[in-house]
Amino acid sequence: MKSRFCELLGIKYPVIQGGMVHIGTWELVSAVSSGGGLGIIGSGNYPASWVRDQIRRIRERTDKPFGVNLVLFSPYKKEVIETVIEEKVKIVTIGGGVARTEIPYLKQRGITVIPVVGSVRYAILCEKLGADAVIAEGMESGGEIGEVSTISLVPQVVRSIRIPVAAAGGIADGRGAAAAFMLGAEAIQMGTRFIASDECIAHRNFKELILKSKDTDTVIVGNFSGVRMRVIRNSFCRAILEKEREYLLADPGEKERIRKEIINFCMGRSLKALIEGDIENGALLAGQSVGLIEKIMPVAEIITQTVEQMKDCILRSDLVFC
Q1: Main-chain phi, psi angles of 308, to 5 degrees
Q2: How far apart are CA 166 and CA 148, in angstroms?
Q3: Across-strand partners of 144?
Q4: Do 83 and 48 form a contact (C-beta atoms < 8 A)?
Q5: Of 65, 93, 206, 304, which alpha carbon lies 20 to 30 A from 102's?
Q6: Could you tell me whether strands 91-95 and 112-117 are parallel, antiparallel, or unpaired per DSSP bridges?
Q7: Three-class SS string for the chain?
C-alpha cells in the first residue's frame, strides 16, 4: 500500500500506533515498526532519561522508522524535546494541548511533526504552524478525547487542510480502516487494538478484560476536571461519575474544591490499571472499539490482517449502482 503517509514516514503500511502512556514502550514500538507500521513511544509524564533509554532499546531491535509522542502538559516536556533532538529521532506526534511553539521549534530542527487534533480549527492552525500531517482523533478513542466523532471529524479536517490526515478513534480492524480511507484519511492510528497484542506490556488482566468488553462498556469521565477520558466501566469510573454529579449540584463556592478532589482521585490510576492489573480501581483507558477485539495476537499479525481486510473491503464492495 502507498499513501502520502507512507512516503512521508518511510513505512510500508499506513498504520500508526497511538502514543499510549505506560504501554507505548520499546517492546510494542519496535514490534509495530518492524511489522511495517509506525511505532510511537508514549512519553507521557516520564522524564527524559526514560525516553532516551526507550529510544536506544528500540534501535537495538529495529532499523525501521519510529517516533515519540510528546505530551504538552508533561513537566518534562522541554527535556524530552531536547532528548528527541539529541537522539536524532525523525518523527514526533504531539498531544495534550495546543503546540503553538513546539511545532515550529521541532520543524526548524528537521523533525517530522504530526499533531493529534480534535477539531477543524486546530487542524488549520497546525498546518499554518508548519505541521507535516495531522491525526484527526474522534471521541470514540480511549484516554483523553475531544467532542467530535471520527466519522464527522475526519472528512471535515480533510476538506479544510492540504497536508495528509490520519484517522483515529474507534478503528480496530480493516473495515474501520477502509471506512477511514473512504472519508479521505491516508493512514489510520490504532491504540486499543494494540493493547491486546503479545508484545504490549499491559497487564494480562487488562488485556483479557478488553476481550470480554462490549460496545457499550466504555464511558466518558473527567468532564469537569479539565481532561475528558474514555475508560472501561469499573468501580473507579463509577466513583468519578458520582463526584461529577456532586460537582453539578454543588454551590459555586464548592465547585473548585470538588474539581481538585476529582483530579487528585485520578492520580496514578492509569498505571494501576495498565501495569498493575487492578481492573476495579484503575483507570482502564480504552476506546469504543473494545467490542471488536476478540483475540490477543502478535503485532505483525494485527497489522497484516488489518491491511488485508481493508484492501478486501475496498476492492470487493457489494454496492451496485443502477
Answers
A1: -65, -40
A2: 15
A3: 229
A4: yes
A5: 65
A6: parallel
A7: CCCHHHHHHCCCCCEEECCCCCCCCHHHHHHHHHCCCEEEEECCCCCHHHHHHHHHHHHHHCCCCEEEEEECCCCCHHHHHHHHHHCCCCEEEEECCCCCCHHHHHHCCCCEEEEEECCHHHHHHHHHHCCCCEEEECCCCCEECCCCCHHHHHHHHHHHCCCCEEEECCCCCHHHHHHHHHCCCCEEEECHHHHCECCCCCCHHHHHHHHHCCCCCEEEECCCCCCCEEEECCHHHHHHHHHHHHHHHCCHHHHHHHHHHHHHHHCCHHHHHHCCCCCCCCCCECCHHHHHCCCCECHHHHHHHHHHHHHHHHHCCCCCCC
With a CB cutoff of 8 Å and minimum separation 6, the contacts of 215 are 288, 290, 291
pTM comes to 0.95
Own/partner contacts of 203-212, CB < 8 Å, gap of 24 or more, are 203/273, 203/274, 203/275, 203/276, 203/277, 204/277, 205/277, 205/278, 205/279, 206/273, 206/274, 206/277, 206/279, 206/284, 207/296, 209/279, 209/284, 210/286, 210/290, 210/293, 211/293, 211/294, 211/295, 211/296
**Minimal CA–CA distance to 299: which of 40, 4, 7, 6?**
40
**What pLDDT sits at residue 263?**
86
Can you read off the three cell numbers belonging to residue 131? 505541521
Give dist(CA 19, CA 96) in Å, integer: 11
Residue 319 has pLDDT above 80, yes or no: no
Distance between CA atoms of residues 119 and 138, nearest Å: 9
What's the pLDDT tens digit per position in 271-293? 999 999 999 999 999 999 999 99
Query: Measured between alpha carbons, how far is 92 from 105 in angstroms, rounded to an integer?
Result: 12
Q: Hey, what's the cell of 92?
A: 514526533
Contact 159, 134 (CB under 8 A): no
